[in-house]
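Predict structure. Input: Small ribosomal subunit protein bS6, 124 residues.
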Amino acid sequence: MALYEHTFIARQDLSTAQAEGLIEHFQQVLTDNGGSVSDTEYWGLKTMAYKINKNRKGHYAYMRSDAPSAAVQEMERLMRLHDDVMRVLTVRVDEHEEGPSAVIQAKNARDERGPRRDRGPRRD
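Output follows.
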């Protein structure tokens, strides 16, 4: 079996619980077809660079899996048929990186820095 990283964007009008439910659904598709999912991340509702299907924002999700190619093809087929999924990206990798993805690391670094200082009252 090969190692894969999957990223998909769901419609903005879904709730967070529904977006996380999509992650669980597609994780189950992979496991039912002989694969395993090692890690999932919900990146949140993010603004996109351009509109997709009249949506300016989307729920981003990320999964790391070890699955046969048939399982990945079936999951991608179901994602493309699903009305709530707007875009899908699957990349085959040689090995999975340990720890959280770069998106989560950047978010944690922003949270640790605290509030921005330039947001105070103007001093003219």
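Helices lie at 16-32, 69-81, 102-113.
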